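user: can you give me the structure for this one chain? tokens are fine.
assistant: on it. calling the predictor now.
[tool input]
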Amino acid sequence: MMEFVLLGGDQDRREENELASLFDTPAYMRRAKGVEEALEQLLARCRQQREQWLLMARLRLGQLHALAGDWMALRPLLADDEQITVLEWLRQHLAPKLRLPPAATKSQRVLRRALRELIESLERFNVKWREYLPKVDLKAVNDLRDGYNRYYVLEKACALRSDLLARHGFTPLPPFDLRALEAQLPPLPVPCLADK
């Protein structure tokens, strides 16, 4: 193991910092990266569950779009024009891909049934999703955020040897709560049928 003699001059400090930077990332940077990675891992686990539960809704959406040929074919069955926007948003975000899409039809009965099946699938997903989100354990992410808020500036000040530089641009992270999780991964919009 090599030993270093630390002298008091600025040149010596500069060399010491350069040497340290070659071998290790500063603690404040590791802390910030750890906070980001923990949140991304949590969101990835939630997205994986979300994808599993969206299989049927995605299938129903793809079938409905194939049967309709165009969303406007469904307009007589929908509450208003905004529902076309909802369907298109769902198509863009769920990106259904069918192996064998059904042929388009003009039958209102077939389209109505397919639309109802989609709505039921979306509603089932939303119920499961709203039950799932409060059960997600946010403690590990929030413990890391708390450590970031307490020690980031101190660790950065030690690394940079300047309290002023360490505080510059620092914003404490709020706790990551259910509302923040739902904002990242919200329930899905559900189109409304016309009153008939």
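assistant: here you go. The helical segments are 10-23, 27-53, 55-68, 82-94, 108-132, 139-160, 163-167, 178-184. Residues 161 and 190 are 55 Å apart (CA to CA).
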